[in-house]
C-alpha cells in the first residue's frame, strides 16, 4: 500500500524543518563513535576504576579490547508498581550477556516518580521536571564511556521519555528498552471511576474508596488503563525499540524473563562488536517519530506525548510541532478502545491482538513508514509479531493474529472505531492548546460558557465542595505552566468535573497545565501555549467572559471585543507556595529554563538552531543519501 499523502507530507516537512539540527546531531553521533570498544578511549587508570569491583572473569573480558560491555540503566524502585519487577533484572541480564561472551554492568539508576501517588499532591509539581532529571541521570550513568550497548529499564510516564532523551545524547550507542509488563486485571476502570465519583459527591466513604482503589491497583506491574505509561509501551513497540510484543507480557512469568534475556543478547548483537551495529540515534529518525505519532493516534494515547515526543524528537535533532500531531490525527483511524477511551484495559488489548496487530494494520494501510531502522535491523514489519515461550525456554515469535480477538477493543484499519485519532489542536485568541476527544462524547466537543478562573486545584475543589459550581462554565485553571509551578497534571479534578457533566451542566477546562493520560470524558484544552507566566493571553481572561472551546473547528477563544481585550491587564498570582517545600526549591532552574509546551517544556537545547531559511513548504522532498544522512548510514552498514 502506498504511503498516505498526509503521512508523506508531514514526514517531509519535518525532515525539511530539521535538516540543520538533524545533520548536527548525526555529526555529533559519528564523532562520539569510537572504532572498537568505547572503553578503548579510557586510560588504564580510568578502566581500572571502571571494573575494580568486577568478578575476575568479567574483568579479564574487559581487559581485552574485543568483548562488548553492556550498560544497564534502570528506573527500579518499590514505589511504582510498574517498576518494582525490575528488581531482579540486572542479574538476569548479566547472566544472559555472559552466555554470549560479553559483560553487563549496572551503570546507573534513574529516579522514577509515580504520578498516581503524587496526583493532586505537591509532588506532582516535580513530575514533568523529573523527565529531564531522568535524562540527566541517564547521561551520568552513560558518561563513564565504558559501554558498547545499553539496556534501558523503564515504563512509566516520564521515565521512558527521560531515558530515551538521555539515550539519544549517546546516540552512537545501541540501546534496547526493556519493559516489565502490566499488572493483572483488577476491578474494571469503569467501576473504579464510579466509586471516585460517588466519593466526590459524598455518597461513598473513604474506606469504600480505598477498597475500590486497592482492588484496581492490586499488584506488581503497570496500571492497566491506557495512560502515559502504556502509551509509552505502544510507542516503544512502534519505534522498534522493544523486542516485538514485549510490552504487555505479565511480570514474573517465564516468558517475561525469557524476553529480558533475549533483549540482553540482542544488545550484544547490535553492538559494533556483535557485527550488526545499530546505534539508537539511527533508529530514532524523522520517520520513526512520525510512526510514533501515528501509533499514538491509532490507540488514543496520552496527551502527555504532545510534550514528551516533542522533547524526544528534539534530543535527536528533529523538530516537530502540534500542527504535525493535528494533521496526522485527521487521517489516522482509531483502532482501539482501551480505558479511558473504552472499558477494556491493556490486558484485554493484548489478548485481542496487541501492538503487533496495530503495527501491521497501520503498515498495511500505508499510514506508517516500514523502511525504518529498529533494534532488529532494518524494517518495521519484523515488529508485527508476538512472543511465545519455546520448548527450550527461549522466546519464539509468531505473526500477530490476522483478525482481532475482540472487535469491541481492537479493530482493523478497514473498520475503525473512528476515522481520526481524536487528538486535536485548538487555537485562537487564548493561544494554542491540545485536546484529546477520543473519550469525550460528541455533544461535548463544542462548549461555550462563562469563564470561572481558578489559580489552583485546591481553589477549584473548595468551590466545588461548597456547591458553587453547579452551572454551565469553563474552568480556566491558571498559572499551571512549566515556568509557574512545573505544569502538574490536574487529573484529580476529573471526578468533580465528571459529576457536573453527569448532572447536565456544560463544563470544560482550559489550562496551561496538563491532564493525565488516564483523563477522559470532560473536554479539556490543555498545555495552552504560551503559558500565562510567559505572557500567554490566558492571563487576560476574567470571570464571566464567554469562552468557546471548539474541538470540531479547532478553535479556542474568549468571545470578548477587541477593545475590551486590548485594555485588559495580565493577571498575577503569588506562586511562592509552589516554589518551596517537597523539594520544589531544587527545581527552580527547570522552572526558569523550561521551553514552551509546544517545544516539549524541555530544559535542554537543540543540537543546533532550526534552519529557518529552509522554506517549510508542503511536500518538499529531501535528496536521499546525503553524506552522514540516515540513508548514507544504511548503505554503509547494511551492505
Ligand atoms: O499520565 C498518566 O497516565 C497518569 O499520570 C497516570 O500515570 C497516573 O497514575 C494517573 O493519576 C493514574 O490515574 P488515577 O489517578 O485515575 O489512578
Ligand atoms: S502507571 Fe501511573 S500510577 Fe501506575 S505505576 Fe506508573 S506512574 Fe504509577
Plain-language structure description:
Helix 8 (189-200) packs across helix 20 (494-502) and helix 10 crosses helix 13. This protein is 36% helix and 13% strand. The longest helix has 28 residues, at 5-32. The strands form four sheets. An eight-stranded mixed beta sheet has the order 9-10-14-13-12-11-15-16. A four-stranded parallel beta sheet has the order 2-1-3-4, sandwiched between helices. The protein contains 23 helices and 16 strands. The protein has helices spanning 5-32, 44-51, 56-63, 89-99, 115-118, 127-142, 159-168, 189-200, 206-216, 228-238, 254-269, 280-283, 286-298, 305-315, 322-329, 346-352, 354-364, 457-465, 482-485, 494-502, 562-567, 588-593, 630-638; strands spanning 69-74, 103-109, 149-153, 175-178, 373-374, 377-378, 385-389, 395-399, 423-428, 431-436, 446-454, 473-477, 507-511, 524-529, 546-550, 555-558. It is globular and about 75 Å long. The model is unreliable at 615-629 and 634-639 (pLDDT under 50). The two termini are 26 Å apart. With 639 residues, it is of the alpha/beta class.
Amino acid at each position: 500500500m502506498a504511503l498516505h499523502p498526509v503521512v508523506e507530507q508531514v514526514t517531509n516537512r519535518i525532515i525539511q524543518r530539521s535538516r540543520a539540527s538533524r545533520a548536527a546531531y548525526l555529526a555529533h553521533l559519528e564523532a562520539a563513535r569510537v572504532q572498537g570498544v568505547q572503553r578503548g578511549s579510557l586510560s588504564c587508570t580510568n578502566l581500572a576504576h571502571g571494573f575494580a569491583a568486577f568478578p575476575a572473569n568479567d574483568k579479564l573480558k574487559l581487559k581485552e579490547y574485543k568483548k562488548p560491555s553492556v550498560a544497564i540503566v534502570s528506573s527500579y524502585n518499590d514505589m511504582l508498581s510498574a517498576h518494582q519487577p525490575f528488581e531482579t533484572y540486572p542479574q538476569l541480564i548479566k547472566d544472559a550477556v555472559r552466555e554470549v561472551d560479553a559483560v553487563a554492568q549496572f551503570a546507573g539508576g534513574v529516579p522514577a516518580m509515580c504520578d498516581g501517588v503524587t496526583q493532586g499532591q505537591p509532588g506532582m509539581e516535580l513530575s514533568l521536571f523529573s523527565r529531564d532529571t531522568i535524562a540527566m541521570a541517564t547521561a551520568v550513568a552513560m558518561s563513564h564511556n565504558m559501554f558498547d550497548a545499553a539496556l534501558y529499564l523503564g515504563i512509566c510516564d516520564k521515565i521512558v521519555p527521560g531515558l530515551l532523551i538521555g539515550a539519544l545524547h549517546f546516540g552512537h550507542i545501541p540501546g534496547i528498552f526493556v519493559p516489565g509488563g502490566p499488572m493483572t486485571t483488577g476491578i474494571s476502570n469503569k467501576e473504579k471511576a464510579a466509586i471516585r465519583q460517588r466519593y466526590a459527591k459524598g455518597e461513598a466513604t473513604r474506606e469504600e474508596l480505598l477498597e475500590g482503589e486497592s482492588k484496581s491497583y492490586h499488584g506488581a506491574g503497570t496500571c492497566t488503563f491506557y495512560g502515559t505509561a502504556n502509551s509509552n509501551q505502544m510507542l516503544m513497540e512502534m519505534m522498534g525499540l522493544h523486542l516485538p510484543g514485549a510490552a504487555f507480557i505479565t511480570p514474573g512469568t517465564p516468558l517475561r524473563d525469557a524476553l529480558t534475556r533475549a533483549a540482553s543478547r540482542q544488545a550484544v548483537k547490535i553492538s559494533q562488536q556483535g557485527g550488526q551495529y545499530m546505534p539508537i540515534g539511527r533508529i530514532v529518525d524523522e520517520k520513526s517519530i512520525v510512526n510514533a505519532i501515528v501509533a499514538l493516534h491509532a490507540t488514543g494515547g496520552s496527551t502527555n506525548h504532545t510534550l514528551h515526543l516533542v522533547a524526544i524528537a528534539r534530543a535527536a535533532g528533529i523538530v516537530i510541532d502540534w500542527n504535525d500531531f493535528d494533521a496526522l490525527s485527521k487521517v489516522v483511524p482509531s483502532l482501539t478502545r482501551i480505558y479511558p477511551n473504552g472499558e477494556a484495559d491493556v490486558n484485554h488489548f493484548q489478548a485481542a491482538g496487541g501492538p503487533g496487530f496495530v503495527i501491521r494494520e497501520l503498515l498495511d494501510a500505508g499510514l506508517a513508514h516500514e523502511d525504518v531502522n529498529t533494534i532488529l535491523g532494518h524494517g518495521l514489519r519484523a515488529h508485527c509479531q508476538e512472543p511465545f515461550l519455546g520448548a527450550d525456554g527461549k522466546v519464539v515469535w509468531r505473526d500477530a493474529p490476522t483478525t482481532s480477538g475482540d472487535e469491541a477493543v481492537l479493530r482493523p484499519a478497514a473498520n475503525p472505531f473512528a476515522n481520526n485519532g481524536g487528538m486535536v489542536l485548538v487555537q485562537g485568541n487564548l493561544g494554542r492548546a491540545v485536546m484529546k476527544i477520543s473519550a469525550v462524547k460528541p455533544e461535548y466537543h463544542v462548549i461555550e460558557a462563562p469563564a470561572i478562573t481558578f489559580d489552583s486545584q485546591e481553589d477549584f475543589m473548595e468551590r466545588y465542595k461548597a456547591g458553587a459550581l453547579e452551572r454551565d462554565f469553563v474552568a480556566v485553571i491558571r498559572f499551571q505552566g512549566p515556568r509557574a509551578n512545573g505544569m502538574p497534571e490536574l487529573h484529580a479534578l476529573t471526578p468533580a468535573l465528571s459529576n457536573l457533566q453527569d448532572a447536565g451542566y456544560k463544563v470544560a477546562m482550559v489550562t496551561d497545565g496538563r491532564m493525565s493520560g488516564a483523563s477522559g470524558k470532560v473536554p479539556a484544552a490543555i498545555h495552552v501555549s504560551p503559558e500565562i507566566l510567559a505572557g500567554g493571553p490566558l492571563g487576560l481572561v476574567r470571570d464571566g467572559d464567554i469562552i468557546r472551546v471548539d474541538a470540531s473547528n479547532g478553535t479556542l477563544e474568549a468571545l470578548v471585543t477587541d477593545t475590551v481585550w486590548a485594555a485588559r491587564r495580565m493577571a498575577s498570582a503569588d506562586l511562592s507556595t509552589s516554589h518551596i517545600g517537597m523539594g520544589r526549591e531544587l527545581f527552580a532552574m527547570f522552572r526558569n529554563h523550561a521551553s514552551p509546551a509546544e517545544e516539549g517544556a524541555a530544559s535542554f537545547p537543540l543540537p543546533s538552531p532550526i534552519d529557518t531559511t529552509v522554506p517549510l513548504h508542503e511536500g518538499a522532498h529531501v535528496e536521499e543519501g546525503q553524506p552522514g544522512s540516515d540513508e548514507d548510514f544504511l548503505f554503509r552498514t547494511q551492505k
